[in-house]
C-alpha cells in the first residue's frame, strides 16, 4: 500500500473516518459535497399537489383538462425524482464500488457508472475520469499505475494523473479482484478464472515484442467459420402457423446461430403503458412474447439441436438468439439492451431491442428496430436510428434497482397507470388517441429515469457501445418507403420484377448514400418484392393492399450489417478479425399471417482468433533469444540504488528526526514505502519483549512517520519526518489510567523497514532503521 504516512483518514463509499480514533469526520457524496439526511417531506409534494389540483380545478374543455392532467403527472414524477435525489432511492449509477490508495497519497474510487474519482487524503475531490461505461468492480495500485477492473471483463491501466495507458478484455465475466506479485498483475473473474499480465505492459517493450510476434502470427492464428441466419418479421399483433415458421426459419442447414427479430408482437394502450411501467423497475417480457419464443424454439428443435442464449422484449419488440449445441461452448457473455423511441423517447411502440454476445472471443451485436411510420417521416426515422445507435447500453442484468427502490417505483408506476386511465378517459372520448392518453403517465416515470438520473444531471456521453463490436447486424421494420411513385405504377413494376427501378426510389438507399443514416453499414442487393403492405391471408403478389388507402408497396423490412473491414477488399486476420459475406437475402412471400412478409438473411462469417497457448510459447522464445529485448527487460526490472541517511534514531519528548532517502540511480524513479516490522519493550533486565505492530502502516500510536510512502525522482532526495507524538492515555487498569502496553512509560524500540522498488518490479530492496523511544524523564 502507498500513501501518506499513517493516513489520518480514508474514504469508504461516502464516509470519511479518522483512521486512528475511528471517529466519523463527515459524510459526502460522490461529487465531494456534504451529504444531508433524507427529508421525507420532499416526497409529500405529490399528495399535496395532487389534492390541490383535484379540488380546485374543473374541466374546461378537453385540451385544457389534458394539459392540466399532464402537469399533474409530471409534477408527481418530479416529486419522485426530488425524493430520490435526497437519498431515498439513491443514484445507483453513482454508487462507489471500489477504492484504492496510491503511492502519491491520493485515493481513487470507482462507481457503478464506470466513473473514476480521485481524492486527496482529506476527502477533497480532485478530478474524475470516465473511460468505460460499465461498472468498476475493483481497483489496484502499484508504483506509478492504477489498474481498473470492470463488470464487462475489461481491464484498463491509468497513470497517477488519470491518463489512460491501455486496456483490453481480460475475462469473459466481471473482474472482481486485481493483485500484483512476481512481476505480474493477476486478475480474478467472478467465474473463478485467474489470468496474469506482465507488469511492464503497456510499456517500451510492447512495440518491439508486437513486431516480433506479428512476424509469427501465422503460427498461432486460427480461423473459424460460422453460418448465421438473421430474420425479421413485423407480425402485426398476429400469431404465426407452424408452416409459416418453417418457411421462414427452416433453411437452417449448417446454421450455427439464429437471430430472430419481431415487431408488433402486441400493441395497444394497455400493453405500452404496462411495458413502460415494467421498464422502470427492470422488468420485461409478456405471455405473448413467451408464446413466440416457445413456438420458434419448437421450430428450431430447441434442446436437441439449438439452445436459446438470450432474449429481450420492449412492448411489441422482441429479439432472441439461438445457438447450435455444437457451437455453444464458444458463445457467451450475453447482454441485453432496449431503447424506446416513441412518445418523447419513453414508450416502446417504436424503438429497438438488442443482444450482445461473444463468439470465439469476438463481440457480435444484434439490434431489432421499429422506426417511425409514414412516407414523409424520413428525418424522424434517421433520428430514431441515431438515437438507438448512440444510447443503446447493454447490461447482464436488467434489474437495475435494489429491492426497496424497485418496489416503490413499481407501485408508483402502476398507481400512475391507473390514475392515467381514469383521468384521461374524457380526453379519449373527445377524440385523442387512447395510446397517448394512457401511456403518458408511465412515460413521465420512464422519462424521469431514462432521460436523466435522479439528480437531474444528464449522463455522460461516451463512445457508443455498438461502435466497439466486431460485427453489428441491424434488422427490423425500418419503415423506409418508396418516393415519387404511385400505387399502380409500383404494382406494375413489381409484377415485371424490375426491382432496379424501385431501388432508385428507395428512401433508405438514398439516405445511406447521403450519409444520413446507417453510416458505414452494408446491405445485400434486394432481389425480392417489397414486403409491405399486404392483406392478411391473401397469397401471391395480388395480396398487396387494395383497400381505400392503397398504401404504396415498400421494402420496410431490412437487414443491414457492419463487420471489421474498413474496405471490401480486406481479408480476415487478427487485425481484421471478423469478415462477413451474405449467402442469401430473401423474403418469404408465401407467408400470409401478417401485413408484412418475413425476411431472412444468411451470413457466412469468418472469425480470426489467436491460440493463446501457442502465442505464449512464441513469446517465451522471443524473450529468451532476443538480446535487445532481454537487456530492456532487465533494465525495467532493476531496483534503483538508494541510500538511507541513518539506521538508528532516538526520540524523546516530541522529538522530530529527519530521515533522508537518496535515489542514486540517474534513469528511473524509486518508489518507497515505510512499515513497522517489529515493536518491542526494553524490560528492566534489559531483555526485549516483542509485540505485533498496530495502527496504520503498523506504527505505534506514539510515532508519526510522514510521508510513509512516495516517489523519489532520479538523483533526488526524499525527506521523511519521524516524530515522537504526545500520547494521551485512554484506558484504565485497576482504576489507573494507562495506554496500550504503556508505550510512553517504557523504553520502546521499533524496527522501521524502508522498502524501495522500481517502476516495474515487485521485488524490493529493504533498509532497516531502529527507532528507540526513551521514557519521560
From TrEMBL:
Transmembrane segments: 400-425
GO biological process, one term: phosphatidylinositol dephosphorylation
Chain ranges of the Inositol polyphosphate-related phosphatase domain: 224-611
Keyword list, A-Z: Membrane, Transmembrane, Transmembrane helix
Pfam family, any one: Exo_endo_phos2
GO MF term list: phosphatidylinositol-4,5-bisphosphate 5-phosphatase activity
Protein name: Inositol polyphosphate-related phosphatase domain-containing protein
Amino acid at each position: 500500500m502507498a500513501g501518506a504516512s499513517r493516513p489520518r483518514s480514508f474514504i469508504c463509499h461516502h464516509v470519511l473516518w479518522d483512521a486512528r480514533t475511528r471517529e466519523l469526520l463527515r459524510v459526502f457524496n460522490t461529487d465531494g459535497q456534504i451529504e444531508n439526511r433524507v427529508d421525507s417531506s420532499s416526497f409529500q409534494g405529490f399528495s399535496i399537489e395532487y389534492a390541490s389540483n383535484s379540488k380546485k380545478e374543473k374541466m374546461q374543455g378537453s385540451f385544457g383538462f389534458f394539459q392540466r392532467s399532464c402537469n399533474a403527472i409530471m409534477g408527481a414524477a418530479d416529486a419522485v425524482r426530488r425524493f430520490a435525489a435526497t437519498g431515498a432511492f439513491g443514484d445507483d449509477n453513482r454508487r462507489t464500488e471500489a477504492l484504492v490508495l496510491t503511492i502519491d497519497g491520493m485515493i481513487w474510487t470507482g462507481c457503478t457508472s464506470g466513473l473514476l474519482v480521485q481524492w486527496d487524503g482529506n476527502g477533497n475531490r480532485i478530478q474524475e475520469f470516465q473511460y468505460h461505461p460499465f461498472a468498476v468492480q475493483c481497483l489496484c495500485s502499484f508504483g506509478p499505475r492504477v489498474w481498473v477492473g470492470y463488470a464487462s471483463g475489461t481491464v484498463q491501466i491509468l497513470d497517477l494523473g488519470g491518463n489512460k495507458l491501455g486496456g483490453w478484455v481480460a475475462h469473459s465475466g466481471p473482474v472482481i479482484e486485481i493483485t500484483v506479485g512476481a512481476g505480474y498483475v493477476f486478475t480474478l473473474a467472478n467465474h473463478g478464472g485467474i489470468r496474469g499480465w506482465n507488469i511492464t505492459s503497456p510499456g517500451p517493450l510492447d512495440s518491439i515484442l508486437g513486431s516480433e510476434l506479428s512476424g509469427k502470427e501465422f503460427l498461432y492464428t486460427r480461423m473459424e467459420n460460422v453460418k448465421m441466419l438473421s430474420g425479421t418479421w413485423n407480425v402485426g399483433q398476429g400469431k404465426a402457423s407452424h408452416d409459416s415458421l418453417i418457411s421462414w426459419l427452416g433453411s437452417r442447414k449448417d446454421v450455427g446461430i439464429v437471430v430472430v427479430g419481431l415487431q408488433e408482437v402486441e400493441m395497444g394502450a394497455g400493453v405500452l403503458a404496462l411495458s413502460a411501467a415494467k421498464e422502470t423497475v427492470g422488468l420485461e417480457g409478456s405471455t405473448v412474447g413467451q408464446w413466440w419464443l416457445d413456438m420458434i424454439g419448437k421450430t428450431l428443435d430447441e434442446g436437441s439441436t439449438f439452445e436459446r442464449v438470450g432474449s429481450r422484449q420492449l412492448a411489441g419488440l422482441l429479439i432472441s438468439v439461438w445457438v447450435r449445441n455444437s457451437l455453444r461452448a464458444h458463445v457467451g457473455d450475453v447482454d441485453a439492451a432496449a431503447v424506446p423511441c416513441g412518445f418523447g423517447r419513453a414508450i416502446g411502440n417504436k424503438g429497438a431491442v438488442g443482444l450482445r454476445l461473444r463468439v470465439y472471443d469476438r463481440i457480435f451485436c444484434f439490434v431489432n428496430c421499429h422506426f417511425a411510420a409514414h412516407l414523409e417521416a424520413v428525418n424522424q426515422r434517421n433520428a430514431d436510428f441515431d438515437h438507438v445507435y448512440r444510447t443503446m447500453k447493454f447490461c447482464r442484468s436488467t434489474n437495475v434497482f435494489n429491492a426497496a427502490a424497485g418496489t416503490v417505483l413499481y407501485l408508483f408506476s402502476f398507481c400512475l397507470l391507473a390514475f392515467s386511465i381514469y383521468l384521461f378517459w374524457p380526453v379519449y372520448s373527445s377524440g385523442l388517441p387512447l395510446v397517448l392518453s394512457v401511456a403518458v403517465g408511465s412515460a413521465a416515470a420512464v422519462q424521469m429515469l431514462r432521460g436523466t438520473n435522479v439528480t437531474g444531471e444528464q449522463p455522460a456521453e461516451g463512445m457508443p457501445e455498438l461502435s466497439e463490436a466486431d460485427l453489428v447486424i441491424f434488422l427490423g421494420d425500418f419503415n423506409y418507403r418508396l418516393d415519387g411513385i404511385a400505387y399502380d405504377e409500383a404494382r406494375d413494376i413489381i409484377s415485371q420484377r424490375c426491382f432496379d427501378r424501385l431501388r432508385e426510389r428507395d428512401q433508405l438507399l438514398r439516405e445511406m448514400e447521403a450519409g444520413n443514416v446507417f453510416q458505414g453499414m452494408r446491405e445485400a442487393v434486394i432481389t425480392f418484392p417489397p414486403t409491405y403492405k399486404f392483406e392478411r391471408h391473401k397469397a401471391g403478389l395480388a395480396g398487396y393492399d387494395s383497400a381505400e388507402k392503397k398504401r404504396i408497396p415498400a421494402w420496410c423490412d431490412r437487414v443491414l450489417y457492419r463487420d471489421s473491414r474498413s474496405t471490401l477488399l480486406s481479408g480476415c486476420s487478427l487485425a481484421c478479425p471478423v469478415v462477413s459475406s451474405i449467402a442469401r437475402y430473401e423474403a418469404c412471400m408465401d407467408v400470409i399471417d401478417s401485413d408484412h412478409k418475413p425476411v431472412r438473411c444468411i451470413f457466412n462469417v469468418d472469425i480470426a482468433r489467436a491460440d493463446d497457448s501457442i502465442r505464449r510459447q512464441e513469446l517465451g522464445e522471443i524473450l529468451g533469444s532476443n538480446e535487445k529485448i532481454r537487456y530492456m527487460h532487465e533494465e525495467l526490472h532493476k531496483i534503483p540504488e538508494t541510500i538511507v541517511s541513518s539506521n538508528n534514531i532516538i526520540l524523546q519528548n516530541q522529538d522530530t528526526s529527519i530521515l533522508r532517502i537518496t535515489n542514486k540511480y540517474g534513469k528511473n524513479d524509486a518508489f518507497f514505502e515505510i512499515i513497522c516490522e517489529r515493536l518491542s519493550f526494553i524490560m528492566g533486565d534489559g531483555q526485549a519483549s516483542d509485540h505485533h505492530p498496530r495502527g496504520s502502516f503498523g506504527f505505534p500510536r506514539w510515532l508519526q512517520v510522514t510521508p510513509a510512502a512516495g516517489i523519489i525522482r532520479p538523483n533526488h532526495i526524499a525527506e521523511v519526518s519521524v516524530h515522537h507524538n504526545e500520547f494521551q492515555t485512554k484506558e484504565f487498569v485497576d482504576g489507573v489510567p494507562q495506554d496500550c502496553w504503556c508505550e510512553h512509560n517504557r523504553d520502546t524500540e521499533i524496527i522501521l523497514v524502508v522498502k524501495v522498488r522500481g517502476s516495474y518490479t515487485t521485488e524490493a530492496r529493504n533498509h532497516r532503521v531502529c527507532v528507540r523511544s526513551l521514557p519521560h524523564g
